[in-house]
Amino acid sequence: MADFPELTQAVINGNAKKVLELVNIELGKGAIPQSLLTDYMIPGMLHVGQLMQEGEYFIPEVLRSAKAMRGALELLEPMLAKGADRKSEGYVVIGSVDGDIHDIGKNLVAMLLKGAGFEVNDLGVSVKTETFLDAVKARDGKVILGLSALITPTLDEMQIVINALKEAGLRERVKVMVGGAPVTREFAEEIGSDGTAEDAAAAVTLAKQLQLS
Questions:
Q1: 12, 25, 162, 187: least buried by Cβ within 10 Å?
Q2: Which of these, 119, 123, 132, lies nearest to 162 by C-alpha position?
């Protein structure tokens, strides 16, 4: 097993109390908030994603790590917002499509994306097409749109959102990733999305690829 810095290991272990304690200690020593995030915490979450893909971590462990990460982010975000050098991996709008109120998978993807350095606008569940479009319009440049559905009857909503993006002239600058238990690669291609992922960790990898494409 690789040796990680104490803060990174605390994130991997999902020890929220230890993560906050170490972050506060480092801030007291004059550490740069952005450095704590990019050099220690994000590598921890990326390793958690790797452990999930390898079958060593499952949803409970990943949620614990994500919760530990989120607690530290809440502390650091006001400081990061003041810094001109804040680095973002990209901007993601995410939500469960209209009629679908399931959010566990969507929340996990959102937390892992934040942990990987993305800015995430989580619109919640049963999100109307117009709400997705408004969120995209509110942001200039490239946007990654994550659409989630856990029940088959709501899958058609994904196609509706993609069609609406085209009609609004937004499709060229929006990369659409779709996910959820009933979503297959064939379906993702059929509706004209830019990809799907088999789990939350793979969704982060996909988001990175879409950001670079």
A1: 25
A2: 132
CA distance linking residue 40 with residue 8, whole number of Å: 5
- pTM to 2 decimals? 0.71
What torsion, rounded to 10 degrees, do the Cα atoms 157, 175, 184, 110 define? -80
pLDDT tens digit string along 23-80?
A: 999 999 999 887 888 789 888 888 888 888 788 988 889 889 988 988 888 888 777 7
- What pLDDT, in 10s, does the model give residues 137-159? 999 999 999 999 988 999 999 99
Distance CA 47, CA 105 (A): 19
Q: Domains of the chain, with CATH numbers? A: 6-82 (1.10.1240.10), 91-212 (3.40.50.280)
